[in-house]
Amino acid sequence: MNRPAITQPQLVPVTSIDAHLPAVPADALTPQSIRARLAPLTVWTPEFAGDGSPFAGREPAGAAVLVPLVQRAAGLNLLLTRRTDHLRDHAGQISFPGGRVEPEDDSPVATALRETEEEIGLSRGYIEVIGQLPVYSTVTAFQVTPVVALIEPGFTLQLDAFEVAEAFEVPLVFLMNPAHHCHHTFEFAGAERRFLSMRWQGDDREYFIWGATAAMLRNLYRLLITG
What we know:
227 residues; alpha+beta; Nucleoside Triphosphate Pyrophosphohydrolase; 4-stranded antiparallel beta sheet; globular
């Protein structure tokens, strides 16, 4: 059975908000703490392993994204992108920089770094990779490895106008507070579908972070809150 793309996720009703869960403490959101938490990890079970069964007719493909934590004076910010509206997959969505594994890539890290440089022009000289999160399976049949990295300030971005409409930063402390984690539920063809979202109000617009990006951030939350 084909599953329709969700084109207006912000209109799907919120069924619950996780305000009852604790926020990650400030001392666990420092570069040193996150580096130490990721360093010894081998295998762990995430809260969200994927979006559900993939669209019909899609062959599984490897992918990797960078989870770029920018080291600002006020604390860590997460660097995110908004995809352009004409793309085949995840058009207009908020996402991490990243993409499909290519034959020349020898690891998920290589994919994430290459795609980040191609999409937003972030030079590898500013990037310190500190670990990986579990693979996340999307309905578009990608097996995505999130690569977590610390980003040194001072960089200049150059966006690929075909793929990236804009890049922006969100304070990590906001994203690691479950009071901002909303659950959405709806039915299609007799089956229940769910997704998570986080709304961030920027300087001049609201950003609706949802789907795979929100789920991977929730996995990062679970890792840091149990550390």
